[in-house]
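[job 4471] stage=fold_predict status=RUNNING
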Amino acid sequence: MEEISHANAAPPRAEQPPRRQSHVRGISLAFVSFLVGAIGIFANLTELGWDKYVPGIFLIGNDGPFVEPITELNIGAKNHLEANVLAQMMAEVIRDRAPDLTVNTHHYQGESEDVWDQVFEKKLDIVPDYSATIGQLYLEMGGDSFKFGEDNEPELLNDLLTMKAIKEQQDTHLHVLGHFGFENSWVLLMMPKTAADLGITGKSGKLSEFLGSDALNDFTIGGTTEFYGRDDGLNLITSRYRFDFGTKIVLDNNVQKYAALEAGKVDIINGLLTDAQTQSGRYVVLEDDLGFWTTYRPLPVIRSDILEARADVRDALEELVGQLTADEMRDLFSELVAAGVTRDTITNGPDRNFEKIVQSFLCRQDLMDRCRKPV
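[job 4471] inference complete, writing structure tokens
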């Protein structure tokens, strides 16, 4: 039979695959080129260290972004009772909200710089510290370059911490959450007899009364290493008020300081506004009435990798944000002092009295789920 040819008929299907294969091959080559370019960009960012700070740059697996699981946390604090109480509070609320985590506390770990070193070395994951301390010691900022105490202070600090981390190409960087709620500042305290010798009547005096005076030249002061060593501690006051003390003795905890003051071994000591003793009526407080000392606002300091891996840790810590007042902290410290809680009992512990008192405080503040009765 004669084969019939149709001039307008469509070409046989068998002739199409070569063009489709060429098209697919073109797409594949384009995709490969894109992938190679993306990998190159990522490699450059990684070399610069940006992958540690820019959110969303992860290794992608079948289940999405890969973050190494965290099952244990280490919370620490510097050599100050208030910081150790805040560290214990953070440990308790995290245990309450993230029961799968093993939470360890490490109390009295040195001064601020010592604690920060341990955070970068990943020996500690979370610590409490003060906004102005972070700004002045870690970020090395003068008082005029950052207005501490603004409502957006944590956000400003986080921006500065991130910029420092990128500049120094750190493996990890610090992140702060919101303020716990109360404010603190240095004060000087003395016995009423010493105050009377200086012509001070009542329960408080003003540092401006000694402006340019040599009346304190023969006095002995007892204070912490940090108070003496920091530019915003004793050095700031003596330079601004233009006076000085005769002898300086290092006393690194409240028990030592107040015992030395009571025994007459020192004439004046440094304290903090939240110390239980400042409201006891037993001591005369010398106030920085010209406002040279910075106001300190404590907040949680946490490594960024912990925040990325455990959103429940952030949620737990944010339960404490804005919840603590200075009066409540003083009352808590008074309870701890009455129970005989000291640096030695905490560091040689575990001190069950210390833990129970902090837990009871958090329950009274309705800050732990396990304390809440079913409705």
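[job 4471] summary: The first strand starts at residue 60 and ends at 61.
[job 4471] exit 0
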